[in-house]
Task: structure prediction
Amino acid sequence: MEYILHLLIMIAIYTILVVSLDLIAGYTGLLSIAHAAFYGIGAYVTALLSIHFRTQLPLNVMASAIVAAFLGVIFAVPLLRLRDDYFVVATLGFQMILYNIFNNWVGLTGGPLGLPGIPKAILLGTRIDTSPKFLIVAAGLALMVYFVVRRLVRSPYGRVLKAIREDERFAQALGKNVRWYKVQVFVVGSALAAIAGCLYAHYTTFIDPTSFTVRESILITSMVILGGAGSLRGPILGAVMLTVFPELLRFIGFQSSVAANLRQVLYGSLLVLAMLYRPHGLMGEFGFEK
Amino acid sequence: MSLALKSDSAATKIVISGKNLRKAFDGVIAIDDVSFGIEEGTVTALIGPNGSGKTTLLDLVTGFLSPDRGEIYLCDQKITALPPHEIAGLGVSRTFQDLRLLNRLSVLDNVLLAYPNQRNELFLNALFSNSIQREEARNREAAFQLLESGGLSYKADDLTGSLSYGQQKVLSLVCCLATSKKIVLLDEPVAGVSPEMSAKIIELLLAMKAGAKTIVLVEHDIQAVRKAADQVLVMDDGRVIAAGLKEEVLGRPEIIEAYLT
Result:
């Protein structure tokens, strides 16, 4: 039972990550592989605040989102003038910079040893110290993020985002300030990703840089693409699949060391198959092809 | 060489003008010292052979390119090198030669996107406003009417990519209309469409003119130019080589021969 709860909690956390990345990549067409960096920002902000100041969950959520948004602005304002592939490479660079900060600023982040002893979340005076309680909180936040993004993409605002994805110049000719929309979306998506990081830090009570690597970014991106970028349910399905599927490998009887490697092969194969036979993902309307 | 359009009456107002514009791409001069003025409420055809700089001129005026030299004015306001969305915001709408419609969105969505100053295109309103449905309903009704006038309302919910080429050209015009800008620049509105569609588009164009819009069209189709234009501006090799009333310019056989056949 505890194991099932664990999987559900991870699915809730990944739901926040894929939905927020979908806003950036699926709806607006800005393929970012820096998402794990913002996820990490949320985790570190939460860890530091709650270790040093015993702050409560709502404050941690807000602080994580605000710090990530701030970094998102610093990144987005100069770099969103880049187009397509160049932008992807820039996000990769940003991801690497933040990973190196997590890994090397030992005084603040504990470096490779990470930050142990993160207190359990406290919400309205209640310690969220059991898995069922935590699942309720995580699912609640995931739903909130889902509905925020859903409302955005189904509004006239979302229509502008899709226009930017489809043809920037057309949107500009109609008077839309494309660059400003891109900055907004990137910042909002990054701030939402930090909320996932906040949950993760409270949940595991220990974080280190290995959770926020390029590989993690690629995993999140894979979930979005596999499920179907530019739809909302698709990426969530992707998150469920890529969380649950590797676990199944354990039951087939592989040793955990083999299973870990096999997992990577599996992700890779799934992506290759998806691109070959289902380029817009399982439930998506749109692929990344231009 | 620089030629401004001469007008008969001093009362006509120049709404768009360029002075000594120059633009080169990697040393190849696309626009070479071009000056022009477009009168309010007229239809001006911009003609010339392929590669003569017509589309580049449109891109300069709409901010998609910025000139190496020279100035562009909207009435008395200098708009040189402003970003495209700001120029659009000042009242200039355009279509593209390659249309650039959103093929994977519905026909209706393309038109809805064109309405200016939508409150709910702002982030906070999109999240918190309760007027989204009202604004959408109003625009949707207007969009349907525009689509109706272009004979496309029955296609409103179809994907734009499923329209014929001619229908897409009509749609790009409808989008232009929905922006309700006073100045409309059209890049080859009838090129490559059937004669019936072409007639339909010219009809729309003349309706736009009747609606007191100022129209500039790049076009190769002489029939369309004869039917729709008041003024003609002839370009060749990055320069304006003739400009004036349609009757004068198109009365010159060498121009017909060289640029419109």
Observations:
- The CA atoms of residues 228 and 281 of chain A lie 4 Å apart.
- Chain A touches chain B through 27 residues (CB under 8 Å).
- The mean pLDDT of chain A is 89.
- Strands of chain A lie at 121-123, 126-128.
